[in-house]
Amino acid sequence: MKKYILAIDQGTSSTKTILFDESGQAAAKGSVDLKTDYFDNGFVEQNPEDIFQNVLDSVTECLNDFTQKGLNISDIVSCGISNQRETFILWDKDGKALAPAVVWACKRSIAVCTDLIEKGQNDFIKLKTGLLLDPYFSGTKLLWLVQNDAELKKKIENGEVFFGTVDCWLLYKLTNGTHFKTDYTNASRTLLFNIHTLQWDKEILEKWGLSNLNLPQPCPSSHDFGTVNWSEILKLDDNFSIPMTSLIGDSHAATFGEGCFEKGTAKVTLGTGSSIMMNIGDKAVLSQAGMLTTICWSTEDRVDYALEGAIVSCGSTIEWLKNELQLFSSPAETAAMATAINDNAGVYLIPAFSGLGAPHWQMSRKASIEGMTFGTTKNHIVRAALESIPYQIKDVVEAMEKDMQAALKSISVNGGMTQNQFVIHFLADLLGIPLNKQKNPDVSALGAAYLSGLKSGVYESIAQLSEINKKQTEQVLANANNDLPTNGYQGWKEKIARF
């Protein structure tokens, strides 16, 4: 009898739910889009109840797909969640949200960050959290809410406010408030968590006036987080109650799903934004080259750290070209548009729509298209947008190698943009190494499933997972004779340096 794991991948634009079997193969899927509110002042928000309902709808769709194939719900052993990171929610003890969910891409706390940096807190924060003072992370946006909502500030001071990233919010709701927990990866993205002690940092909380904020218990990513009674929540006829045995940030989940189990292995997630994460082993190395140090993933007997370069605009750049400039009707058209011309003709798109992330951390930079002439066509602009993705990744890889004083052992790619053949081959040629690509495109969900299965006994060990992954990986080889990416990258670096 087969065993299955329910993996929920709650992302910025949708929630995917996938049921995986013991061999890491998807047996059933469900996917439901999620609304995000983008405001012209740089604010980005979601409705917390919409996030929860979105998950329920996605799980329902997946279970329906599963049962329609004649499979039995009783064979599902455990569940796990991977989630959009840095997005956070505030709620009361009854599970009622007290504010909109503030999304990771929100830029409301630029002034807060500037003020804290001017007060000399950047090194202090980096030493404890591995992060930089940037609006990308939860803590400074929380401070903005406190500074701009007197009633909320009073509730925090009175100990009435619960804080959590999306994983924690979902767990709280799914267990009727009986489990208030998060995992180390999600906690490590808040600016409030000490990555060395693996605890919330009392000194930071006191300095920022957040000592009375209710914070979840931090736990390993693979852990017993409580039991979810799906029958009660989804009004099912079947008796379907299973343990939640993994919580993990989506980029970290993808790192685990890609099999980055050893020091020097890395992955690139190409989604709305992009995350390049490299496993650096069991010790936190603080970057001198603009990288972040974070928890890579963890089990109850092992914690691996990572260097990460977070890129703010990846697939979102292509969506902007489609929605606002209407240069094409579908992103699937862009690869052909890019290859319809010989090169970028000196046109570069700097995708700083929400500032530039690692390794530059230029918070106030705005997006621009540079090098245009009357000979510039929409194909040049599209190509420049696509090229900006590999260029940003190359920036991060060079910084990581500088920190580690060693070249990457391997690099894996995942996410929606991996379907774009122009981007993938351009990236391979620019990095000059093969790219490992999972046949299963949903590696964040797979990582959550692997970690859940390790705790629930579906998988015996990480060594077993490594063997499973080898059977599901293909390579994209680099073309050593293509010097266009390298030449283009020199121009990119010149444009970046001018700011």
TrEMBL record:
Gene3D superfamilies, A to Z: 3.30.420.40
Keyword Nucleotide-binding tagged: yes
Protein known as: ATP:glycerol 3-phosphotransferase
Carbohydrate kinase FGGY C-terminal domain mapped to chain residues: 267-452
GO cellular component: cytosol
Keyword entries, A-Z: ATP-binding, Kinase, Nucleotide-binding, Transferase
Record Pfam families: FGGY_C (PF02782), FGGY_N (PF00370)
Record-stated family: Belongs to the FGGY kinase family.
PROSITE patterns: FGGY_KINASES_1, FGGY_KINASES_2
Coiled coil feature spans: none
GO biological process assignments: glycerol catabolic process
One Gene Ontology MF term: glycerol kinase activity
InterPro entries the UniProt entry points to: ATPase_NBD, Carb_kinase_FGGY, Carb_kinase_FGGY_CS, FGGY_C, FGGY_N
Domain Carbohydrate kinase FGGY N-terminal intervals: 4-257
